[in-house]
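USER: I would love a firmer grasp of how sequence relates to backbone shape in proteins. This is the protein in question:
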Amino acid sequence: MVNTFQNGVHPAGSKYLTRGAAIEQGPIPEKVYIPLSQHIGAPAVPVVEAGQKVKKGTLIAKAGQGLSAPVFSSVAGTVKGVVSHITLAGKKRDHILIENDFSEEEERLPALSSFDRESVLGRIAEAGVVGMGGAAFPTFAKLNIGQRNADYLIVNGAECEPYITCDFRIMTEMTDKFLKGVRCAMLACGAKKAIVGVEDNKPEAIDILSTHPLCLPGGAEGLDGEPVKIILKKLKTKYPQGAEKQLIYACCKRVVPEGKLPIDAGAVVVNVHTALSIFEAVFENKPSYERVMTVSGRAVAHPKNIWVKTGTLFRDVADFCGADDTAAESIVAGGPMMGENVFSLKACTGKGSSSLLFLDKTESEVREAEPCIGCGKCVQACPMGLMPVYIESSLFAKDLESAKKFGAKSCIGCGCCSYVCPAKRYLVQSVKLAKKTIQERGI
């Protein structure tokens, strides 16, 4: 049985470019510009000064007030100071500039003395683990659900965005570490069952996971010695299969109530790379300072899956993989459906940098919007059952009450509406603007 959700679209996968590319070490930069804000919430607060020597894994910024995460050095070298550096959006934000001495000296967190729920949660927070699928929500805050226990830990192995294959490579190359990270996440949120959802366009990953001892029908032993079950579910290849609410429904047929969180449906969702990072933090005492990234697109001479150090310039990544930015019609950080256009290759990688795409003219069209023809395809495609065309018209009429009524607040920003629109209207941008404006004005 292949599980899925209602509506959605089927964009060309284009994963053939890197699905066979084993993970390799990426560029070793001369300098890194490590962002203080590479997670949802408050920016981290610097704890180092100019001239200070650091190692890989040295804490350079502690978590800020409220929702935040600490930041660690990704190279050994000398701190040059806190500098204003360009971001994806073309804005200047604070980064810590470190000059690499190429000694590769490393510093790790102290080993855990026990593996109970509180200790594992504390280690996830201490290591600065965030959602590695792109959202970058601090993982400690997501898994820390107080006295409650989740019925299910849902692991997003769908990787439904075109081009991206880093999670697929992790599932096939680092299966044991990934699944042990899943066990850690289960303990942290109190779940006795985990469901790993993998799209059926990844048969190699499905075969490897289905035969792994931790996924066998008899179940496995959790970190606390209690029996747990890790279940593999084959999902239909469809976008946005990996969106949180759609994934929960596909995996366990539960609906997250409007305006509520997944835990209100008894579920907590983590990404494949997040589970790997949890394993590294808990068992290898390694803080989060590097990640696997897919570099792809037809304007790349050597599409790859590579380990990239946090704060690496996109220019260094491009040069390492032979990307020709002059031949690229568009450069995208993240997937082509929900990613961001790159303003400058001077921008840097962060914990949520899942991919960097260099798309040529055959892969990226220049859209010129035309009047709506009233076909209703955006309504048919929306996985949340919204009416994007009416939300857009309400926004233009400055009728935010109607935009809210048509469901703007429930938009997940997947872009299905824009993808299917024959008039090439910028529907997802309009709906996201309506959602943001409604929230800002407290409507």
About this structure: The chain has a mean pLDDT of 94.
